[in-house]
């Protein structure tokens, strides 16, 4: 429950609304406490009239009027109270969700490789919802129940101390019940949840491994196994249902008994002439109100318990610290010249046995082009990702314009880089917004088209009915893999940043288009420091400098001609590609 | 986010439909048929519970008129006794009623969930291509849970609410028809009010769902693409956009709160107006002529206040009904899609050993118009080991899919022992083959569970023998719990090579007539590579096998090599024969892929 204290921080900007809401809630409760009294007095008055045979019209109208007036007032108070408390709970929900987003946006890429999208979304939706319930219903019902119970109790104590206290006797069991049931319900509920998640995992693996299942003709066995697991799940649910089915009737029975006791005692007192019929009716109308907290207590415990659990999960996320952040006295780069240097650069991913790159020494002069080739997993992407500091780079290993990149402000460093990542990720916005992504989606028209021309995307866009304003994704057009890559190229090229990184960005493009793009991009690359990673010799042969990576080390280094002459890995790759091309042309 | 596919239909399920659909409802109720005794008894119990629930409010009035006014202590005690009995009976009825409805709900859920799962098991791979794992999971998981809620809670709640309203009406008319009629004048405005509320709440509910879906979609997209966001320094702008979407959602909720904040107090007002009517009208016109007694009047007030809760509850049941209908529609949609790969008449079982596999002019495409196989013909005889080679995209893996009949050919025939695979009982066909797929897939469970899968007829000894045969025994013995060691789908406790060996062991343990092996391309450490090659050698020597080969050692062992290129068989022969063709594809492939690989074993 302590976790819920975090909410104080989120409540404080809205504290006046919440306090006002609570104030109106209390006023509401005070008014509500009057209603049973009016009913009791009204009914007693009618009883008197019945006995005496005289109808007092004014008294009746007065009671009716007060009743309706009180309810009107209460309605108004309750309206204001809900508008304040419940609405604020939604506002706070928004605040927390915004904060979650901002926090996530500040975390390093390494966080996202470890986290599960489903889990993060669950925290921003289900968990947040549980927390919100605490703020709305949780606050309202707690105060409401408390007020009704104590208010009703005080009033009835004024009527008759003995009857009131005796009436409360059955309620003494309530804490025992909560204690006994609380633990058991928690345990059985956990059992149910665990089995559900086992069931889910089994289903997930079955669907994911359906080819294995089918090839070994295991469907029947899988069905049997799933059947057994579902049976177990059902059994656990019924185990839980036994408790639940007992708990709620038990609580109502306790309330029912309290009503019977108050009825019997007050009735007896009335018959013996120790109590007026007015007081008798006080019990009739007030006791149900007093029992109200009994009914909601179970529900309230659930809201508070799950709210606390969810708050903990949200707090965990909010407590994540970015592993890549500005140094205290960092410098801001206006526009870099673009010289890059790696000095004994090593990097090991968390939980990896071997370093991804190992003591790399490399100088890339401003304005020159570096090409990186090498097999999958040789460290090409790691090397490139270090430059805009997408990795937790150690100080003193990577330099831009002679500045250690860990001393440069992260934003200003990344502004120097136009990056085409290996896995093309586009957003479900328009093509224009995607290309102008680095300009916050609002780049001048001609530059968007110019950038689209560099990657030969413009012809394709002309074929699309809404052109650059066509939305991508689910409710829009679906681009092919190659078109997506070319959009990503335009997105990087349009920035006019001094450093351009192309990470295997033409893999889904056919050879003919690749050549054309390379021709156009060569022009752009000439003005910048460029790093191009590719599997294809055709893409790298014109680079000023080519390095061949193997298992995180530089295996070969030179130009196209010197590397071919050396007859090493690079030369082998080149020969294989020639063969591949020959195979491709075979019909 | 690496390794996490971006699912575009993550939020497809947010669409909402009607809250009541007679066709869906009828179909759902069919599931209750086996439990009709329990359901009928529960409903009867509910009638009694509703009656008993309202009883004290009538007894209190009666007691006042008959005993308190008349000073009759015995009568009061009698009523107190009745009320205690009623509390107890209500407790018992409610307990058994609730438990039995929960049982019914759980059993219906059990039936639906297993039915759905079995149905999905019968579906072809095309179905799985169309339906991402996440979507199927939602059907089997959340949708069925929603229906469980519908059967075990919702139905009972709706019935209870209606019965209480009914019970109250009966009591009122039994006491005084005239006052009852006047009091019930509150019902039309109450219903109009709840209709107004429901209409607006429904609209708001839909809007919030839609806005929430947008917020979630944007959130998810940004998590998946956070790297790109950070590369392009877009955090600020995206936070702003997210904030806007979030604001729209909040505003929608605020509107929703308005309707709730208006509805509840107004409903309360209507209830209290009815109380006022009872007191004023009753006092003015009925008490004088002694048409009604004061206790009855009290009962009237108490009973009319019982209207409020059920009417309010019924209005909020609406959303739950809507979700239940939407879930059932999605579940039925899957149950209604027939399995498209089923044996064609005349059906035969493959009872004898596989003697011969034959492809006759097979054409096949995954996507209509994009042919992957363009007239493939070849045969595999008993005892032969055949290697299929070719560049990526040549259509090699598709052959596996067709022999197992995971997919049906567009034209041509795939024959096993001279009979088209279409005529075989699938179980009998597939259980004669063992397939090692290119993507190594392990299930969460122990090592031995992964070798024998669900086949209990495979003994522990056979599991060990199989592991020994493929060189997996040694490393398994070194695991903490040996054959009972836990493995997970993507866990890191085993190396890639070790996982491959376990898949080999799986294939061996099933003692197939035909081994189909799609070699994994991922590289493994030299020691394991050696073990794998040795295992492959033994596998291929001992039985009929069709191997999609990536290892030089594998093709060299094959009795026959089939060279595929662009969906066609281009060359057939042994390694030596094929190498002799100077301009042959195999020669080029050999240089490209196999040269430089060490031959071992």
Describe it for me?
The complex is a heterodimer of chains A (587) and B (601). Chain A has 587 residues and is of the alpha/beta class. Chain A has four domains: 1-152 and 306-323, ABC transporter type 1, transmembrane domain (ABC transporter transmembrane region fold); 161-274; 325-416 and 497-587, P-loop containing nucleotide triphosphate hydrolases (Rossmann fold); 429-494, no CATH class. Chain A is built from 20 helices and ten strands. Chain A has a six-stranded mixed β-sheet, sandwiched between helices. In chain A, strands 2-1-4-5 form a four-stranded antiparallel β-sheet, covered by helices on one side. In chain A, strand 4 and strand 5 (403-404) form a beta hairpin. In chain A, helix 5 (117-159) packs antiparallel against helix 6 and helix 5 runs antiparallel to helix 10. The two termini of chain A are 72 Å apart. With 601 residues, chain B is of the alpha/beta class. Chain B contains 20 helices and twelve strands. Chain B has helices at residues 22-30, 36-68, 73-122, 125-130, 133-175, 177-183, 187-224, 226-231, 235-286, 294-336, 396-403, 426-430, 447-452, 460-469, 473-477, 496-509, 526-542, 552-557, 575-579, 585-594; strands spanning 356-367, 370-381, 385-389, 411-416, 419-420, 433-436, 445-446, 486-487, 514-518, 544-548, 560-565, 568-573. In chain B, the strands form three sheets. Chain B has a six-stranded mixed β-sheet, with helices on both faces. A four-stranded antiparallel β-sheet of chain B has the order 2-1-4-5, covered by helices on one side. Chains A and B meet through helix 2, helix 3, helix 4, helix 5 and helix 7 of A and helix 2, helix 3, helix 5, helix 7 and helix 8 of B.
């Amino acid at each position: 429950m302590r976790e819920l204290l975090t909410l104080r921080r989120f409540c404080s900007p809205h504290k006046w609304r919440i306090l006002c809401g609570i104030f109106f809630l209390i006023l509401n409760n005070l008014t509500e406490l009057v209603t049973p009294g009016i009913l009791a007095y009204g009914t007693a008055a009618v009883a008197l009239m019945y006995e005496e045979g005289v109808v007092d019209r004014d008294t009746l109208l007065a009671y009716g009027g007060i009743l309706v007036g009180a309810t009107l007032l209460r309605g108004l108070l309750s309206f204001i109270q809900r508008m304040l408390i419940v609405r604020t709970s939604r506002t706070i929900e928004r605040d927390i969700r915004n904060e979650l987003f901002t926090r996530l946006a500040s975390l390093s890429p390494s966080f996202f490789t470890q986290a599960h999208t489903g889990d993060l979304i669950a925290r921003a939706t289900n968990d947040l919802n549980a927390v919100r319930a605490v703020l709305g219903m949780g606050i309202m019902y707690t105060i409401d129940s408390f007020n009704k119970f104590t208010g009703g109790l005080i009033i009835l104590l004024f009527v008759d101390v003995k009857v009131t206290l005796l009436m409360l006797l059955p309620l003494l069991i309530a804490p025992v019940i909560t204690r006994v049931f609380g633990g058991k319900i928690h345990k059985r509920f956990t059992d149910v949840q665990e089995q559900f998640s086992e069931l889910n995992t089994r289903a997930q693996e079955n669907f994911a491994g359906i080819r294995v299942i089918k090839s070994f003709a295991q469907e029947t066995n899988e069905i049997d196994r799933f059947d057994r697991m579902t049976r177990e799940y059902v059994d656990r649910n019924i185990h839980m249902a036994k408790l639940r089915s007992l708990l709620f009737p038990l609580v109502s029975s306790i309330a029912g008994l309290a009503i019977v006791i108050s009825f019997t005692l007050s009735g007896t007192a009335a018959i013996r002439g120790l109590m007026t019929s007015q007081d008798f009716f006080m019990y009739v109308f007030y006791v149900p109100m007093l029992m109200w907290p009994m009914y909601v207590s179970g529900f309230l415990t659930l809201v508070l318990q799950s709210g606390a659990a969810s708050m903990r999960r949200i707090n965990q996320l909010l407590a994540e610290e970015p592993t890549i952040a500005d140094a205290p006295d960092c410098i801001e780069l206006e526009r870099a010249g673009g010289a890059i240097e790696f000095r004994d650069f090593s990097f090991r991913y968390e939980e990896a046995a071997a370093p991804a790159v190992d003591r790399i020494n490399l100088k890339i002069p401003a304005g020159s082009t570096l090409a990186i080739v090498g097999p999958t997993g040789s460290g090409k992407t790691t090397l490139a990702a270090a430059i805009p500091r997408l990795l937790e780079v150690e100080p003193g290993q990577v330099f831009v314009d002679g500045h250690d990149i860990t001393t440069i402000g992260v934003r200003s460093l990344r502004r120097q880089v136009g990056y085409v990542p290996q896995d093309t990720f586009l957003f479900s916005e328009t093509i224009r917004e995607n290309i102008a992504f680095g300009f916050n989606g609002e780049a001048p028209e001609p530059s968007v088209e110019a950038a689209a021309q560099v990657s030969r995307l413009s012809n394709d866009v002309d074929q699309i009915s809404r052109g650059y304003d066509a939305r991508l994704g689910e409710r829009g057009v679906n681009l092919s893999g190659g078109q997506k890559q070319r959009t990503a190229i335009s997105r990087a090229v349009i920035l006019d940043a001094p450093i351009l990184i192309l990470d295997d960005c033409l893999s889904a493009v056919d050879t003919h288009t690749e050549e054309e793009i390379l021709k156009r991009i060569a022009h752009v690359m000439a003005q910048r420091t460029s790093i191009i990673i590719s599997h294809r010799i055709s893409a790298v042969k014109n680079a000023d400098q080519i390095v061949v990576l193997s298992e995180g080390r530089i295996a070969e280094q030179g130009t196209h001609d010197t590397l071919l002459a050396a007859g090493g890995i690079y030369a082998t790759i080149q020969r294989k590609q020639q063969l591949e091309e020959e195979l491709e042309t075979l019909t | 986010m690496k390794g996490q596919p971006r699912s575009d239909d993550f939020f497809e399920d947010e669409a909402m439909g009607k809250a009541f659909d007679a066709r869906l409802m009828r179909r759902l109720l069919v599931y209750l048929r086996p439990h009709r005794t329990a359901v009928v008894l529960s409903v009867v119990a509910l009638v009694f519970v509703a009656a008993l629930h309202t009883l004290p409010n009538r007894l209190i009035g009666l007691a006042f008129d008959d005993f308190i006014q008349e000073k009759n202590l015995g009568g009061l005690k009698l009523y107190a006794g009745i009320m205690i009995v009623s509390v107890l009976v209500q407790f018992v009825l409610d307990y058994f009623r609730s438990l039995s409805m929960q049982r019914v709900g759980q059993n219906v859920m059990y039936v639906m969930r297993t039915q759905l799962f079995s149905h999905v098991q019968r579906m072809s791979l095309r179905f799985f291509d169309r339906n991402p794992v996440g979507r199927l999971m939602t059907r089997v998981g959340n949708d069925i849970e929603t229906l469980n809620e519908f059967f075990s809670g919702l139905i009972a709640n709706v019935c209870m609410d209606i019965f209480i309203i009914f019970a109250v009406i009966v009591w009122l008319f039994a006491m005084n028809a005239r006052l009852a009629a006047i009091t019930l004048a509150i019902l039309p405005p109450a219903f109009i009010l709840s209709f107004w509320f429901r209409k607006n709440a429904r609209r708001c509910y839909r809007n919030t769902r839609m806005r929430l879906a947008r917020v979630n979609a944007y959130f998810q997209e940004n998590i998946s693409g956070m790297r790109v966001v950070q590369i392009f320094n877009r955090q600020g702008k995206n936070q702003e956009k997210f904030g806007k979407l979030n604001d729209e959602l909040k505003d929608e909720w605020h509107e929703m709160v308005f309707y709730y904040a208006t509805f509840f107090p107004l409903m309360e007002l209507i209830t209290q107006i009815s109380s006022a009517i009872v007191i004023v009208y009753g006092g003015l016109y009925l008490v004088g002529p002694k048409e009604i007694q004061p206790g009855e009047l009290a009962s009237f007030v108490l009973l009319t206040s019982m209207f409020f809760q059920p009417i309010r509850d019924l209005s909020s049941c609406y959303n739950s009904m809507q979700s239940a209908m939407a879930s059932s529609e999605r579940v039925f949609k899957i149950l209604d899609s027939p399995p498209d790969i089923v044996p064609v008449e005349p059906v035969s079982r493959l009872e004898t050993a596989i003697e011969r596999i034959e492809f006759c002019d097979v054409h096949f495409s995954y996507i209509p118009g994009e042919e992957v196989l363009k007239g493939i013909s070849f045969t595999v005889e008993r005892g032969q080991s055949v290697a299929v080679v070719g560049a990526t995209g040549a259509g090699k893996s598709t052959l596996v899919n067709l022999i197992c009949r995971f997919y049906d050919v567009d034209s041509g025939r795939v024959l096993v022992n001279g009979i088209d695979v279409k005529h075989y009982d699938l179980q009998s066909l597939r259980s004669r083959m063992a397939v090692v797929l290119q993507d190594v897939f392990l299930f969460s469970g122990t090592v031995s569970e992964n070798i024998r899968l669900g086949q209990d007829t495979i003994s522990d000894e056979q599991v060990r023998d199989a592991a020994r045969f493929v060189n997996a025994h040694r490393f398994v013995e070194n695991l903490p719990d040996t054959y009972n060691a836990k493995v997970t789908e993507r866990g890191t406790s085993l190396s890639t090579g070790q996982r491959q060996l376990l898949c080999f062991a799986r294939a061996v343990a099933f003692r197939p007539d035909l081994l189909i092996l799609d070699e994994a391309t991922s590289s493994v450490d030299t020691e394991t590579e050696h073990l794998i090659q040795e295992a492959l050698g033994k596998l291929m020597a001992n039985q009929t096998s069709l191997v999609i080969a990536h290892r030089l050692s594998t093709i060299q062992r094959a009795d026959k090599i089939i060279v595929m290129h662009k969906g066609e068989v281009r060359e057939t022969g042994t390694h030596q024969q094929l190498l002799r063709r100077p301009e042959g594809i195999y020669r080029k492939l050999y240089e490209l892929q196999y040269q430089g690989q060490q031959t071992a074993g």
